[in-house]
TrEMBL record:
Coiled coil: none annotated. Keywords: DNA-binding, Membrane, Transmembrane, Transmembrane helix. This is Transcriptional regulator with XRE-family HTH domain. It comes from Marinisporobacter balticus. It comes from the Bacteria. The chain crosses the membrane at residues 84-104, 110-135, 147-169, 181-202. Residues 7-61 form the HTH cro/C1-type domain. InterPro entries: Cro/C1-type_HTH, Lambda_DNA-bd_dom_sf. GO terms for molecular function: DNA binding. Gene3D superfamilies: lambda repressor-like DNA-binding domains. The keyword Iron does not apply.
Amino acid sequence: MSLGEKIQILRKLKGLSQEELASALGVSRQALSKWECNTSIPDISKIVALSNYFSVSTDYLLKDEYIDENVVLSTETKKQSGNIPIAISTAIITIGLIIAFAMANDGTLFFYWEFSSAALGIGIQIIGICIYEVLYFSKHFEIKNQYLFWGINTWLLSAMPTILSSGVLSKLLNGFEVFHYSFNIMLFYLIFNGALTFYFFILSKRWYNTK
């Protein structure tokens, strides 16, 4: 692993931007960017400053074959822990969807369900989103976790609004038109969420390619 890669990993583990780390070291962001890209090398005083700032040895920074087990462990732990908020929040959002569906279902066709009946479940889904976003920004997880979270949950979060919008149509239209427009809404749900999921997948692939 090169010096630049090590600096980048250590910076991300601390949740720092290039600007923040550069300021702490007394260099420009452009200089730090060149270090991380291995187009230039910091002088010995900055190597020592990096060692002190990140609490790692200069051997770890300078020797390609030298592996600091604490850094490796921290990196792997962060990758694994980043999936925990996704699992917890997705479970909460799923529970919210089930509750919304159960409370809105009064035995009639879904065209006639009322939004007020599903409000509790939708509220729980919103809480699930808030929990994830608070954990994401406070723990400085990698951006790929954000892509994964929204790629999954866009389907769960838009399900009830899609169903309830059909209910609004039922009050405005009658007979065949209700089924016709509701079918179009469901088709839009599939296309829209499929496109969003694909978009987040592409962003995730780009993130991996630029690492």
